[in-house]
Amino acid sequence: MSKRLVVLSLLAVMVFGGLSFGQADAGPGAYILSVDESACLLTVTFYADTAETYTIELYDDGDLVSYATVVAAAPGIYTADVLVATPIGQVAPGVGIYLDGPTSFDAIDPYYLAPDNICGAGEDMVPIPSYAVGGQINYTADVYWGPSEAQITKPLVVLEPGTTVWVLGPDETGEYYRILFAGDYLWVKSGTLGPNFDEVWQGTPLPSNVQS
Q1: pTM, full prediction
Q2: Chain centre to alpha carbon of residue 120
C-alpha cells in the first residue's frame, strides 16, 4: 500500500483478465481506466487530459517499487506497463497504483494482485543488479537478444519513445546497451536511449559497467 493517503471515489467493475474503473460524471483531469495482469506485468490504461508526461507508480508497504512513464502527444487513452519485480510485502494489504500528471492525480489503493501472482519470487523473473538505473527510450528502438545484428528479435520487438527501462550498461564496443524490460534481459542500440529525467531518477547517468 502506498505511503500516500488519498480518498477516491471509484466505481469498480470486475472484468475478465483485470479490473476496470469507471468515473461517473468524471470532471477534467487524467484518471485510471483499467488494470490488467499478465504474469509479472501490470498494464495500466488511463486517460490523459493534456499533452504531457505521465508517471504510473507502484507502491508496496510505503515504498516505490516500480514505475513507468508515458509521453502523451495529445489528450486520449494510453497504456503503461509496470513490472512487478519483487515479491509483494505483507505489512499492508495489496499495492498502490498511482497516476501522476502535471495537473492531475488518480490512484487505486489498495489494488489486490491475483492470488497466484508470485512475481519476484519465481524463475520467470530476473534479478536487478544494484548498479542498474532507470533509463528512457528516446528514439524508436529495435530490440535484440544480444549485442549484434544477428541477434535481433524475430518477430521484431520495438520499444517506443517514452518507454522506461532498467539500464545495466554497454557492451564492450559501446554500440549496444543491455536493458531489463518486462522480465527479460534485452539489448538496444546505444543511440536510442538515455537518462530518465523523471522525479525519481532526475537524469541519473547511465551505468558504464561493461556487459557481455
Answers
A1: 0.49
A2: 15
